[in-house]
Amino acid sequence: MLSVIVFLPLVVAVGLLSATWLADSMARWLFLAATLVEVVLVGIVWAGYHDPGTGRLAYQEQVPWIPGVSSSYHVGVDGLSLPLVAMTVVVFAAGAVYALRERDRPRLQAALFLFLEGVSLGLFVSADLIVFFVFFDLSIVAMYFSIAGWGQGDAARSAMKFFLYTFLGSLALLLGFIGLYVAADPHTFDMVELARATPLAGSPVAGALVLAAILLGLAVKTPTFPFHTWLPSAHTDAPAIGSLVLAAVLLKMGTYGFVRIAMPMLPQAWQAWAPVIIVIGVISVLYGALVALAQTDLKRMIAYTSVNHMGYIVLAVGVAGVISRDTEQARAVAVTGAVTQMVSHGLVTGALFLLAGVMRDRTGSYDIREYGGLAAVAPRYIGLFAVAAFASLGLPALSGFIAEFQVFTGSVAVVPVTAVALLGILITAALFLRALQAVFTGTTRGLSVDFTDLRPSETWSAGLLLALSLFVGVLPRPLLDVIEPAAHTVVGLVGR
Amino acid sequence: MSEPVSELVLWAVVLVPTVVGGCLAVAAFLGGTSRALDRMAAPLAVATATLTLVVSSIAALTRPSVDVPFMAGTSFGLGVDALSALLLPTVAAVILLVLVFAAGDICESRARFHGLMLLFAAAALLTVTATTLPVLLLAWEVMGATSYALVAFWWRDERRVSSGLTAFLTTRAADLGLYAAAGAALGGGAGLALPDLADAAGGWRDAVALGVLVAGLGKAAQLPFSFWLSRAMDGPSPVSALLHSAAMVAMGGYLLLRTAPLLDATGWAGPVTAWVGAVTALLLGAVAVAQSDLKQLLAASTSAQLGFVVLAAGVGAVSGGAAHLVAHAATKSLLFLVAGAWLSALGTKQLSALPGAGRLWPLVGVTGTVGALSLAGVVPLSLWATKDAVLAGALEQSPLLYVVGLAGAALSAAYAGKLLFLIWRPLPGDAEEWYDKEETGTREVGRLQQAPLVVLAVGAAALGVLALPPVADTLRRALGGHTSPVASLTELVTSAVLALAVLAVVARVRLPEPQVLHGWLGLEVAAHAVLVRPTLRLGELLARFDDQVLDRSVTLTSSAVLAGARRVGDLDVHVVDGVVESVAAGARRLGQLARRPQTGQLHQYFIQAVAMLAVAVILLVAVG
Would the pTM of this model clear 0.90, i.e. be above it? Predict the structure, then answer.
C-alpha cells in the first residue's frame, strides 16, 4: 500500500513528462486528480492504522535492494511519519488546486511536483537510511528545478544557493549515516535495526561526532540558526506552490530526521548534545521572530517566521534529551507538540505562502509598503490572510496553539528557563498584525487600488489548508491519538 | 434534569454563539457585502443571545460539568460551580442587552460586527466555564483576538487598527504568564485542572501563581498594563459596553477570584495582588477624574473598579469581589451604552460638548444618572455595598490597604460626580456647535438603544443585595468563603457619607486635569520607549546582521571555494600540464635530432656504420 502511495505520483509524473501531446488543461486536471487519489489512499491507510508499538512499523514492506551493504527497500509508518504523510498529500492537493490557473508550462510543472510528491512521501515512509538519503537528495534536485524553472527575480542564483547549501548538508548527513553503518554490528542501514542496536552507545566520542554530522545535515535542511540564510532567498524567488512545498514539506524532512533518526539511534549522544540543541532552538525562535519583524517583503517575513516555528520543534526535541526523574510525561508532551508543530506549520505556513503568491500574480510585488487598505477591494483575501496570520501566531482554536502549547508546557516543565522562548509568540503576534495592518487597513492606496480579490482556485487551496488547521485546533484528538504513543516511544528510546 | 441533557445544555452555552457567530463572520468575508445578510445579522444575533441566556441560566441552576480528552496530559473540562453560576447569567444577560442596543446603533458591516461579537461572547462564556488551564487559555486568547478585530472594526482609520494592535499585544504579553503557568503546573505534578493548581510542588507553585497573576492583571487592565484599555476606547461603544465592563476586562478579575486559594497558598501572591488592586483603584481613579473624554473616563474607571475586584482576590474576599464584579458589569455597561447613545446621536463624546446632554433624552439621562450614582457609591445603589464588602476584607489584612481602598472609593465619587453634574447643567445655547466633532450625529436615540438601558439601570441599582444580608450570607456559603468578612455598619456608613461628601465638593469645585493623569500616567509612552522601540531596533540590527554577516559569510565561503578551485585549475594548466608538455617537447626534439642522420645517401650511411663499428670496438676493448 505504501509503495503504491509513493510510486503512483512518480508513474504519473513520468507519464506526463512523455505525453508531449497533452493539452495544458488536461495536465492541470490530471495533476489534481493524482493528488486527490493520494489523499484517498492515505485516508485509507489512516483509517486502518493501529499504533505498532516500540521497534515496529505499520504497513511494513521490505525488499532486498543493495545486499552488499545490507540496504533494503524498507518502508513503513508509525505515529511520527503518518501525520507527515497525511500533511504532505493534503499540501500537494492544495498545490494542485492552486495550480489550476498555472499558465507557464503546466504539464512540466505537474510532472515535477508529482515527482516531488512521490519523493517526499518516500522519504517519510522509508525505514532504511540509504533509501532515506536517496529521497532526501532527489527532493533537493526537484526543488532546484522548481525554483530555477518557475521562479522569479534572481531565481537561478537562489536555486543554486538552495541546491548547494542543502546538498552540502546532505553530504554531512551521509557521513553520519556511514558512521552508523560502520559502527553497527552486523553492518546495516536499516533504521529499525539501528534504533534497536544503538550502535555507538559505548563510544561517546564517536557517537558525538556521528551525531554532529547528522545534526549539521538536518540543521541545514530544517533550517535552524545559523544555517538558515538559504531560506529567505529561496522562498522569495520561488513560485507560490514551490514555496508551499518547500515550507510545508521539505523543511519537515529536517525536523523529521531528528525524531526518526538522530534521537532513537544515538540516544546517549543526543542526551549529551541536548543543551546545545535547546540553545539552538531558543535562538532560532527569538532570532527568527526578530529578523522577521524587520522585514518589509512579505515572503521574506514569512520565511523568517519559519525559522522561528522550526525553533519550537528543535527546542522540544532538545528538551526530550534532558533526562531527569518524573519528567517522562512532560518530555512526551514536548515531543507530541513538536510533531504536531510539523503538521501545523505545513498547513498554516503553506497557506500563507499561497496567499502571498497571490500578490505576485496580481502586482508582482511582495513589498508591504506598496499596499494599504486592501480590505476594501479584497474581503476574501483579508479574511483568509487574517485567519492564516492568527494561526501562525498561535491563536487557540487553530492548530498552531495545539502545537505550541504542548511544546511550551513540556519544555518549561523540564527546563524552566526555556520559558524565554515564549517571547517568540509575542513577537510573531506583533509582526503579523503589523503586516496585516500595513497591507489591508487604512485608505486604499498604491498597488491595492486595482487588486482583484481571490479567485476560486486560490480561495479553495488556502481555505482547505486553513480549514484543516481549524479542525486540528478544535478537535486535536484524531491527530494526537496517532502522535502521542509514538512520542512516548521516542522519549523512551532517548531515555535509554 | 437528567445528566446527559444538562451536559448538552453546557455545551450549548458555548457552541450556540460559536456556530452562529462563526457562520456570520465567514459569510461576511466570503460573501462580500450582501445587503440581505446585513439585514438579518442583527435579529439573528439577538435571537442567538437570547437562546444563550436561556441555556446559561439553566446551566447555572443545574451546575453540570463535562470533561473530554484534549491535548497530551490534559482534558477539555467545562463546569459550573457557584462562582460561574453567578457570572454565567450575568455575562449572557449583558451580551443580550448590548446586542439589542447594537441592533439600533451599528449600521454598517452588520454581519461582520455581530459575527465577531458572538464569537467574542462564546469565548467569554467559555472562560467562565473552563475548568482546566488549556481551555481557559484557549478562551482567554480568543477573547483577545476577537477584541482586536472589534476595536479595529472601523479599519479604514489606521489609528483604530493600531489601538486594536496595542490592546491585543499588551494583553498577550500578559497572557504569556498562563503559558508559563501551564508548564510550571505540569512540572510541579499538579496537572492542569484549575482547582488543582494550588497543589503544585515547591517553587513550581510560586511560578504558577506568578503566571496566573500576571495574566489576570493584564486582562483586568491593572497597573502597569492599564494603558491598553485607553486605546481600546477607539472601538465602537457597544464593544466597550461588553468587553470593557462585563466580559473581557472582568474576566481578569474573575480569574484571580477563581485562583484566590492558589494566590493565598504562596504567602506572597495574595498581598501583592491586593496591593496592585488597591493602588490601581487609587491611581486609575485619579486618572479617571482627569479625563476630558467620556469613554476615557469610563475606561479609567473600569480599571479602578476592577482594582477592587483584584484587591478582593488578594485578600480572599471572594464573595465580595464576585458581587462587585457583577454589580460593576451592570453599572459600567449601562454607562458605556449611555455614552454610545450620545456619541451616535450627538457625534461627540467630549465632556466639553456634553453639558446638559442628560436633558435631551430623559430616559438616557435618568438611566445614566442611576449608573453614575451607583459608580459614586451612593446609598443604596449597588456598588456602594459591594465595594464595602471588598474593603472589609482589606481592613482585616491591613488598615493601610483599607485606607488606600477607601481613597479609591472617594475618587470614584469624584469622577462619577464630574459626569453627573455635567450632564444636568442647563443646555448651553451654542450646544450644537460642539457636536459632530468625531462623527456625524443622528440626533436621535432609538427604542432599541433605550430599552437595554432600563434593564441595566435596574441591575445597577439593585445588585447591591448580593453584598448585603441575607443574600450575602448565602453567596458566601456557596463560594466556600466562610472566613471572608462582612462590612460592619460603621464601614457602610463611613463610605456612604464619604461618597456624599465628595459629591458635594465636586458640585462646587472644578476638578483639575493634570497632564500626567490625563495621559494615563504616561504608561503607553513608557512602554513604547522601553519595550517597543528597542525591540524593533533589535529586529532591524539582527536583520542587517543576517544579511551582511551570516549570509555574506556563506557567499564569501562559496566564492572562496570558487577562487580556490580556480587557483587549482591554474596549477593544473601551468604546472602539471606544463610538465607533461615539456616532456612531450623534449621527446619531439630528440625525435628531430634522430631524424638528422637519415639523409638517404649511401656513402654517408657507410661512414656512420664505420664510425659505429669503431666506437663498438673501442668500447669492447676498453671494457674487456
Answer: yes
